[in-house]
Amino acid sequence: MRILIVNDEPPAQIAFTNILAGRREVEGFDTAHDAVEALDKLMHRSFDVLLLDISMLEVSGIQLLDQLTVHGRRLPSVFFVTAYQHHALAAFKKHAVDYVLRPFSNERVDEALDVAFRRSAEERAVSLVETLPPLQRLPQQKCEKKDRDQSQRQNPVHCSGRCSGRPC
After folding, report:
1. How far is CA 70 from the centre of its chain?
2. For residues 67 and 83, what is the distance between their CA atoms, to the nearest angstrom?
3. What average pLDDT does range 49-69 have in this prediction?
4. Are strands 162-163 and 166-167 parallel, antiparallel or unpaired?
5. DSSP letters of 34-82?
6. Lowest-confidence range among 13-17, 77-81, 118-122?
7. What are 88's strand-pairing partners?
8. Residue burial 18-54, b: 16+ Cβ < 10 Å; e: rest
9. What is the per-residue pLDDT for 20?
């Protein structure tokens, strides 16, 4: 899983980095110090999970998700991290997988990561299933084209003294 940590507090970023470094499911992670930097990263790269601070100076975590939606970007599995309980309802309205209150324990973050990883894996599977039918048709389309090409070689169409590009 690819993870983006969005938090304007360096101690929190360090704590998350240490927790993620011990997880085998983590393919890689990056950090953003605010929502503006996060939006730029999310517009140019794909992440499976977003560890998102809800209260940041210029743009909140909720506003960041709104901006991603406006830009038509797929939302990763999101879990919010904050010191404030009163944002929980807004977070879950944005389909957050979890809401972790500070101060947090490593175990609590691991629990939230497990939920986020499961949801991300499920979303990947759904996406794969949706992509599969067009991919399954490719070999059939290739065979049909091959059959048409072969048929044209065996039964050339006459045209102005030339048959499929060669003299009759």
Report:
1. 16
2. 23
3. 92
4. antiparallel
5. SHHHHHHHHHHS--SEEEEES--SSS-HHHHHHHHHHTTPPPPEEEEEE
6. 118-122
7. none
8. ebbeeeeebeebebbbbbeebbeebeeeebbbbbbbb
9. 95
Mean pLDDT of 123-132: 63
Coil, helix or strand for 28? strand
Q: Domains of the chain by range and CATH?
A: 2-126 (3.40.50.2300)
- CB-facing half-sphere around the CA of 45: CA atoms within 13 A: 17
Note the pLDDT of residue 168: 47
The pTM for the full model equals 0.70
SS3 call for 85: helix
CB atoms within 10 A of CB 112: 22
* Mean pLDDT of all residues belonging to the chain: 82
For residues 49 and 97, what is the distance between their CA atoms, to the nearest angstrom?
A: 10
Gap between the Cα atoms of 59 and 127, Å rounded: 30
Helix (H, G, I), strand (E, B) or coil at 6: strand
User: What does the pLDDT read at residue 118?
Assistant: 85
Distance CA 66, CA 60 (A): 10
- Percent of the chain residues past pLDDT 70, beyond the cut: 71
